[in-house]
Amino acid sequence: MKNSHEINTVPSHTSRAGKIRAAVWERDGENGISHKIMINRLFRQGDKWQRSRTFFASELPAVVQAVSSAQQWIEHRRRLLGTPDQPLPIFPMLKPAAPSSAKPLAMVTPSSSA
Question: N or C, which end of the chain has less CB nearby within 10 Å?
């Protein structure tokens, strides 16, 4: 484990789902171990691979899969390190949706007149 003044240049864990990557950085600080996650979409431009922090709607299932995998890794690390901490919140989209009779939310679009 690195001390809190060292900077990780390589993620502690990377989960992938297609071209979506969720990289997890682990840091040991004053308040214990913390984790940060960076989510990217890899794409090729010419002969070089590039990264984007924006996603197409069709890529959202892969984003959820990569983030879910990263979350599982973090929870596993916390158990291994004996740092139960607060349980990580479960993303609402990862829980099975209950059938609802509620009307869908209205879509708001920008108005052309201000």
Answer: C
76's enclosing H/E stretch is helix 60-81
Instruction: Tell me how far the alpha carbon of residue 2 is from its chain's centroid.
Output: 23
How many Å is the maximal CA-CA distance in the chain? 57
Q: Could you tell me which of 94, 92, 85, 90 has the C-alpha nearest to residue 34?
A: 85
Residue pair 26/12 in contact (Cβ under 8 Å)? The answer is: yes
What are the strands, taking DSSP E only, across the chain?
13-17, 20-29, 32-45, 48-52
CA dihedral sign, ordered 91, 92, 93, 97: positive
pTM confidence score: 0.67
Instruction: Give the Cα separation of 52 and 34 in Å (integer).
Output: 24
